[in-house]
Amino acid sequence: MSDSQIILSAVQLCLGGLCAFAAILLCAKKRSSQVVCLLAFVLTSYARTVYQLLCDLGIVTDLKVSLFGLPLLTLAFEIVPPVFLLLAIIFAIVKKR
């Protein structure tokens, strides 16, 4: 990894950790369905960042199991966070009505 990639990864990990911490604090104060889904979105997004970093460093290798030609774990980390964000938005819209 080059120096710029290391700096970018460090910034992503720091900001992702701060976002996860803030989301956990928010969930502790307000426990509603949209906040829990928002917390799940932030945590799975942070887990995706950590997983990509571990794959880039060669610590973790993608499993041989694939779906549509993509590694299953990578595919899950790409699909699950937006689903949680969509659920949080839907719950927020439904609650306003």
Strand order of the largest sheet: 1-2
What is the terminal-to-terminal distance? 50 Å
Shape by Cα distribution = flat
In round numbers, the mean pLDDT is 90
Helix content percent band: over 70%
Give the SSE string. Answer: HHEEH
Which structural class best describes the helix and strand composition?
Answer: mainly alpha
What is the count of DSSP helices, taking H or I runs of 4+ residues?
3
Quaternary organization: single chain
List the helices and strands and how they pair.
Elements: H1 3-29, H2 33-57, E1 66-67, E2 70-71, H3 72-96
Antiparallel strand pairs: 1-2
Helix pairs in contact: 1-2, 2-3
Structure characterization notes:
The chain has a two-stranded antiparallel sheet with strand order 1-2. It has 3 helices and 2 strands; from the N terminus they run ααββα. The chain is 79% helix and 4% strand. It has 97 residues and is mainly alpha-helical. The radius of gyration is 16 Å and the shape is flat. A hairpin with a 2-residue loop joins strand 1 (66-67) and strand 2. The longest helix is centred in the first third of the chain and has 27 residues, at 3-29.
